Amino acid sequence: MIQKVLNTIEKNSMFNKGDRVIVAVSGGPDSMSLLHLLNQLSKQLEISLIVAHVNHCLRGLEADKDQEFVHNFCEDFKIECYSKRIDINKIAKANNVSSETAGRDARYGYFIELKDKYKVNKIALAHNANDQAETVLMRIIRGTGLEGLVGIKPVREETYVRPLLNITRPEIEEYCVTNNINARLDKTNLENIYTRNKIRLELIPYLEKNFNQDIVNGLIKLGDIAKKDNDFIEKHVDFSYKKYCHRKQGKVIIKSEAFKEHESVLSRLIRRTFQEVNGNLYNFEKVHIYDIISIQKQGTGKVITLPSAVNAINEYGDIIITKEENSSEIEKYETFLHINEENRIQHIGMNITLKLLHSEKKINFTDKPNIRNFDFDKVTGDIIVRNRKDGDKFSPFGMKGTKKLKDLFIDLKVKKSERSKIPLICFGEDIAWIVGYRVSEKFKITSDTKNILQIKLESECSE
66-78 pLDDT, tens per residue? Predict the structure, then answer.
């Protein structure tokens, strides 16, 4: 068994020399075997161990005895040990989640807390081959794709490692007997109240008896085959993600071209963008992928709400995946501008310079996009810079009459999320310049123009 564990460690490059490793220990046979094994191998692997135990306060005195047992074992073997009492039922009720979910989140939260505090490199977990088989079978029952068939990964996020993943439960029990490890028994593992327990205690024994006595290894082989195929597809997804997806200010933009990809690739792209924005895939299901594909085929401006307050927005065929706090418009602003002065506008990070020129003098007009000239004699009211308001209208250069600013933005295919970021130079109530897009017909220079107002915008960082 020791050699099998070593092979798993080496094959998956689980540890580096000098690593500090947290071993998650409940006191049961799996985690006690893991601790005993890693303690034996620590000199050979050149790693140091820290034990982490969480008392879930679910089993009263029995849970306290588990905690005491782990501490005593570590004291005997001179292993650093830390434990924490967490009222899981209280957390579960407060967050409206199951005790299983609350317990898992609490455990992992504590492991990360210790990892940061003690500068730990890896966190070792005691999942075994039977856990792997149960996971694959449970996902098949619930409905899963190729990635779900992969099951439990031996290494996750370059932090979590599972050295016992190729060791069966009978092998672990035999190891405990051989090494006089009197591990604690959690009686709730023998109760058919959780789906995983029912699979472990009822379904797998039934399949072993009536269909395949080696069903555990059969499911593990299925997971291994799925992993190889999944890795191949993921390489293509990596390429497609770089090609079609762009991160910008806390959101991810999926270009419209991505939706021409094969559905298996597109589904993974969408999952990856959601995880990129949200940090995890909790409650994100296949139906949400179909919803996103559906709104991409609809008109611009279509929005759907996804789990964890994430929105998907159609902007001219591109899909924006963003947290709600990132999807709101920027703060309204309105600032007066002064002629022959450099006006610093912090809201947009720009310097705006206004110069008054006389048409009798020779003027070199420029086509630079950051400079525009206007007939100053037509200017009435204050000169201001602001962002858009509801009901704004504009007289586009070369056109008679006015047009709603909203309609103009639609014609110009300006993304909805960008519209409030565009500076508007206004003379009184009239918009003279939609910076970066259009100038107004009202203030154009003609042969009768005597005084010219030149406006120049420069980024503060260009100084």
Answer: 999 999 999 999 9
